[in-house]
Design brief:
The chain is an alpha/beta fold. The protein has six helices and 13 strands. It has one domain: Purple Acid Phosphatase, chain A, domain 2 (4-Layer Sandwich), CATH 3.60.21.10. The strands form two sheets. Strands 1, 2, 3, 4, 11, 12 and 13 form a seven-stranded mixed sheet that branches. A six-stranded mixed sheet has the order 5-6-7-8-10-9, with helices on one face.
């Protein structure tokens, strides 16, 4: 019989090869530690900080990810385009205009339960694409016909836009988790309608860095204003994310806990 509650592990933006290695070699241990029924990771920064490649996606799935979400950098590597069409469990933001490669949502089944995952992208200080609010509400209605358990990765720059979307979808989805800024926020909570929320889950990347990149280069860029190329810091990684417990029947979140686990 299916469990009464479902544990959903979500990990923030995987940064370059350090993040890829950490997921491939250590994610299964994290899944076991937290007894996660479903695991979702954001992989849009896994290709040296910009985009995702098929080989890295395969490694994430082999490492234990059930679904991979992305964001504004998903289009950086053209090699991923056919993969996005072929593999339903790697997502690009659903509110891109019709006709682009890939899928914006999916449903996965494990342990007698189904989890729907939706990927949306914000518009404040980002590309002007279709409305994530209207798209999110419409998709939630469709997905709810299949399962009450719905997780939303909202890849956005603006904290106010993230909070507004969570309020808009409160009671319609199990969780709205923010990605993109790479810095974990401390505002995890359950909204009035039963939706878990956090503004940003943080990154799965080197902690001794500037959002995953070599800090000395970032400092030099700021001091000189020169367009120096950012490079991923090849240093020990911290898994940042959240563990969400949800009622399997209603889909309402029961708890959300921030995670910051050094590898």
């Amino acid at each position: 019989m299916p469990a009464d509650t479902i544990n959903i592990l979500f990990l923030g933006d995987i940064i370059g090869q350090p993040g890829n290695r950490a997921v491939f070699f250590n994610l299964k241990n994290l899944i076991k530690k937290y007894n996660a029924d479903f695991t979702v990771v954001n992989g849009e920064n896994s290709a040296e900080g910009f985009g995702i490649l098929p080989a890295a996606a395969d490694q994430m799935f082999q490492g234990g990810a059930d679904v991979i979400t992305t964001g504004n950098h998903v289009w950086q590597k053209a090699e991923i385009y056919p993969y996005l069409d072929e593999k339903e469990t790697i997502l690009r933001p659903a509110n891109f205009p019709a006709g682009v490669p890939g899928h914006g949502s999916c449903v996965v089944e494990k342990h007698g339960a189904k989890l729907a995952v939706m990927n949306l992208q914000g518009r404040e200080n980002m590309s002007t694409i279709d409305c994530p609010f209207r798209c999110g509400r419409e998709l939630a209605k469709k997905l709810k016909k299949d399962t009450p358990l719905i997780l939303v990765d909202f890849h956005a720059e603006s904290s106010s836009e993230k909070e507004a979307l969570a309020c808009w979808l409160d009671g319609q989805v199990s969780a709205v988790v923010g990605t993109h800024t790479h810095v974990q926020t401390a505002d995890e909570r359950i909204l009035k309608g039963g939706t878990a929320y956090i503004t940003d889950v943080g990154m799965t990347g080197p902690e001794d860095s500037v959002i995953g990149t070599i800090k000395e280069i970032s400092i030099e860029r700021s001091l000189t204003q020169m367009p120096l190329k950012m490079e991923i810091a090849d240093l020990p990684v911290t898994f940042c994310g959240v563990l969400i417990k949800a009622d399997a029947q209603s889909g309402k979140a029961l708890s959300i806990v921030r995670l910051a686990e050094p590898v």
